[in-house]
Amino acid sequence: MTKTNDRWPSFLVLGAISLGSIAPMARAQDDRMDRRIFSYVQGEQFEYRAATQGRDTLSWDIRGWIGGDYHRLFFKTQGDAPTQGAVDRGEMQLRYSRLISPFWDLMLGARYDVKPDPSRAYAVAALHGLSPYFYEVDADLFVSEEGDVSARLEVEYQLLLAQKLILTPSFELNFAVQEVKEVGVGPGLSDVELGLRLRYEIRREFAPYIGFVWERKVGRTAALARAAGEEFDTPAFVAGIRFWF
Q1: Which residues, other chains included, contact 23 with Cβ-Cβ below 8 Å and sequence gap of 6+?
Q2: How many CB atoms within 10 Å of residue 129?
Q3: Helix (H) or strand (E) segment spanning residue 178
Q4: What is the value of pTM for the model shown?
Q5: How far apart are CA 47 and CA 50, in angstroms?
Q6: Model confidence over 37-88: pLDDT tens digits?
Q7: Is 88 exposed, middle or buried (0-12, 13-18, 19+ CB in 10 A)?
């Protein structure tokens, strides 16, 4: 019994030495992995919207990044253009992204709206990640060059119906702190977009889809749209492609 107890200090010392050597090795491995540069581009949405009332439009949401596992340069562009006419809404974003937990990135950067007029620049702070139950979340905070504050929340879920058939419900909420008549935005919740898209993955990198989208301006924003003679309630059937490389 005494001999067995005498071995414990040696085992503890060996265990401490082993743990002490593993930590630097793990950090060194993480550093090596972070030095590897990867890139990714995804066409989240690239679609034709056939409105049940109002104008048909072409809409896009394309995003991507370049960098390592912990530090990335992220870009995003999205907007709408009527099939007859110029772009109605178009924005571009460039952000620095830092992994803060296994499923979440903190982002800081800039956004520039080429439309609607007048064009504006914004500072951006964002949180992007995968919540429990695999909801993909984008939460963005914007401060314009004029000091106007707004926010956007995007959530989507991938529901696997079959090996290559995927149903994606989504919603987007936009908020504003101040009224900005120049761009037709009122305070509070300004607009809502609900979407349901069904895609078939011919390959994982390329998937055509069909679906339905409902956009609705609310509150003071809807009143500003009515006063300007603009659409404020736009249901539409959609057809498009989703791709990545």
Answers
A1: none
A2: 17
A3: none
A4: 0.84
A5: 10
A6: 999 999 999 999 999 988 899 999 999 999 999 999 999 999 999 988 888 8
A7: middle
